[in-house]
Automatic annotation (TrEMBL):
<protein>
    <recommendedName>
        <fullName>ABM domain-containing protein</fullName>
    </recommendedName>
</protein>
Length: 114
């Protein structure tokens, strides 16, 4: 499978940045990516005061390459860049070796399940 990782540093970001990112994902980004042609799935990951990351899996190399090029070309204007105040430190293609759905199943969700 064709993966892509995009990561921003949260070190030194203003207080409340991660909460603003969560709100953006829930209100805007989740729906945007739910309809992205060629995308198998996306996850949003974070570590408070450390980093915020999008992980993407695409159906083919062409879909990933087109998306990656758009992200690299527009990195200064990405919503994550605007919210965090700096461009991503990493935009990296990767191979997703395997994915398994465990016995608890998989649920699509726009917000963190507490």
């Amino acid at each position: 499978m064709y993966g892509l990782t995009m990561r921003w540093s949260l070190a030194g970001a203003p207080s409340g940045t991660l909460e603003r990112l969560r709100e953006y994902v829930e209100d805007v980004s989740f729906a945007k990516f739910a309809g992205l042609e060629g995308l198998r799935f996306k996850s949003w990951r974070a570590r408070e005061d450390e980093w915020f990351e999008g992980t993407y899996v695409f159906v083919d190399a062409r879909s990933r390459e087109a998306f990656q090029q758009a992200m690299e070309d527009g990195r200064a204007d990405l919503p994550g860049t605007t919210i965090i105040g700096r461009e991503p430190e990493l935009i990296e293609a990767c191979e997703i070796v395997a994915v398994v759905r465990g016995p608890a199943g998989f649920r699509s969700s726009a917000s963190f399940e507490r």
